[in-house]
Amino acid sequence: MPNQPRRKSYARIPDVLPLPDLIEVQLQSYDWFQEEGLRELFDEVSPIQSFNGNLELHFPGLNQEINEKLGLDYRFEEPKYTQRECLERDITFAIPLYVRVALWNKESDEWTTQDVFMGDFPLMTDNGTFIINGAERVVVSQLIRSPGVYYSVQEDRISGRELCMAKLIPNRGAWLEFETAKRDVLSVKVDRKRKLPVTILLRAVGFGTDEELHSLFEKSDIMSDHPYLQATIEKDPTKTTDEALIEFYKKLRPGDPPTLDNASSFLTSLLFTPRRYDLGRVGRHKLNKRLGLDIPLEKRTLTPEDLTSVVERMIQINNGIEGPDDIDHLGNRRVKTMGELIQNQLRIGLLRMERVVRERMSIREPEQMTPISLINVRPVVAATREFFGGSQLSQFMQQTNPLDELTHKRRLSALGPGGLRRERAGFDVRDVHHSHYGRICPIETP
User: Fold this and answer.
1) What is the reported pLDDT for 378?
2) In sequence order, what are the residues at sequence separation of 6 or more whose Cβ sits closer than 8 angstroms to the Cβ of residue 284?
3) Which residue of 71, 108, 265, 373 is 20 to 30 Å from 215, comparing CA positions?
């Protein structure tokens, strides 16, 4: 790598502050992905178990003790071609990724460790760009709604009352939408499917009896002319936790035979399993802050306490004790940088690869299996290629002049996967909000 050019100032007045690195966001985000983001992904899929439980494939995860014991790690090699050669030959500037993987055969208690080639990974240049098929591309950061809980109010046309609605948005998993009907019934929708009284969900997570429910909300549900909890209980056909679980399962999975085991495992996997439901550290922090909870940031799934607090705040907003949130405030949004965007795309590839590995484990003889014969890297390579070549956020770098290049690398976009669509973006989203002043450019940010 050539030495970085040094700035030499001939000014009479010395610089008070050194110039900031204006593309630091891009460079730091890529470094985070290489050092931590990839390890988090491997930790999510590791270990891959065969259907009969006899074989386990371990990747280098977050547990350093296991990594050192089994000798698991991953490394990037040197790029095959220089940046200039890639630009001249119309090829991708990339580095090969090798992962040390261990296969454990439980029957014979044998460990097989091998280095597996996981494909060429595009390498960021010092200028914060990628060279994909000979063209310089920039991955634009995404401005999305932060995971957490958001309250809004909607005026009832007939009575003129303001009724509260709440959305519980995770980083990954099922959305929960709570709303208040004009007859004071509180209901919840899971992933925009069937609507059901909120007490069914609360009973299903462990607050089974009417007395338990009343004791939860005795401080907030105090309006005699609008008894929200009582109105909801009257609409609720269930009376115990078991009944609530079966009713919940029937509503969301009509057609499947509703047994208690099925219903219980369905609810657990929907809201309380880290692989299916993840608030993220940001989401857990925002939830704690908004609801006044003190749950550790490592606990990234929902808890029964979260659900009761969400409903309690709804009742308080309905009673006029608290106010709703401003969705367009920058405090309720966050920037997904390039590292996180690549991580999300790679997760899809790794989960596809996991499925292939499981199938191969069940077909082949355990004695003949090695990590290399099990792992098919095509889904991972396809996911990276799809992201850099076809994502809305991976764009050809604008090269009109150096300033144009710089502003392109620092740009924010509200579009892209998990963000808004052009057709759906209303006037409120496009409008300049008072929280934008001095933070983001009102012209450049779409």
Assistant:
1) 92
2) 295, 297, 299, 300
3) 265
